[in-house]
Amino acid sequence: MLIPKLCHICGLEMKPTFRHPLWCETCQRYFAPQPRCSRCGLQMQGAGLVCGLCLVNPPPWSNLYCAADYVYPLSPLIHKIKIAKQLSLLAPLMSLLHQAIPQSCNHLITVPMLWHKQLWRGFNLSETMAYQLQALEPSIAIHTKTFRKHRHTPAQKSLNRQARLLNVRNAFSLYQPPQVTEVAIIDDVVTTGATVRHLSELLLEVGVKKIDIYCLCRTPK
Ligand SMILES: [Zn+2]
Ligand SMILES: [Zn+2]
C-alpha cells in the first residue's frame, strides 16, 4: 500500500485518489472516446456517422468498434502485451473496447495464428481478447475454429496495401462455418483492414448476414 504506483505511460507517480490500474489522470486524456466512422472505425467529425470513403465503397462488415487508435500510447502498450507477454495490461484496454460496443454480438469469432507461432508466443491475442470480453458479457459464445490459417505469410507490416490484400487471400480459409447469421470478428489491430475484409467475405459467402469487427485499435490513415 505504501509503494507508489507508477503510470504505465508517462512513468510518473499516480495520485492515490485516481484509481485506474494502468495510467494516471493526465494520461487518461489519450483514451477519451473519439467520434469515428461507424463502418471503418477511422476518426471523423460527428460520431456514429459514415465517412465519405465508406459511403462510396462500404466494407463487407457492418460496424467496426475499437478502443483507440494504433498510435502512442496504445501502440507501445500493445507491443508490451504481444512481445513482452504482459497480459495484465490487456484488461483495462478490453474494458475500453467493451465501452465502445453499444450492444455486444452473441457470437465472437477469433482470428487464428499458425500453430507454431502461437506455441512460440504462448497465446493468441484474438482468443485472449474474446475470453476477456466474455467475462464482461457472459452470454457471448466464442468460436475459435471458424477459420484456419494456412501457411507462412510475410508480415503484413512489411507490405504495401495491394500486396497485403493478395497476401491475406492465401492465408485463411473457412474451417467450421458458423451456424448463425450475426457474428463479430475479434482482432487486436486493424491496419488496412485486409485481414478482416477477407474473413468477412468468407463469412458472407456461407450466408452470414451481419458481421461486426471488434479490435483493440485502429491504425489511422
Ligand atoms: Zn501518466
Ligand atoms: Zn469509414
UniProtKB/TrEMBL annotation:
Q: Name one Pfam family in it.
A: Pribosyltran
Which SUPFAM superfamilies does UniProt cross-reference here?
PRTase-like (SSF53271)
Which InterPro entries does the record associate with it?
ComF/GntX_DNA_util-trans (IPR051910), PRTase-like (IPR029057), PRTase_dom (IPR000836)
Q: Which domain of life is it from?
A: Bacteria
| Occurrences of domain Phosphoribosyltransferase (ranges) | 122-220
Which family does the UniProt entry place this protein in?
Belongs to the ComF/GntX family.
According to UniProt, the name of this protein is: Phosphoribosyltransferase domain-containing protein
Q: Taxonomic lineage of this organism?
A: Bacteria, Pseudomonadati, Pseudomonadota, Gammaproteobacteria, Vibrionales
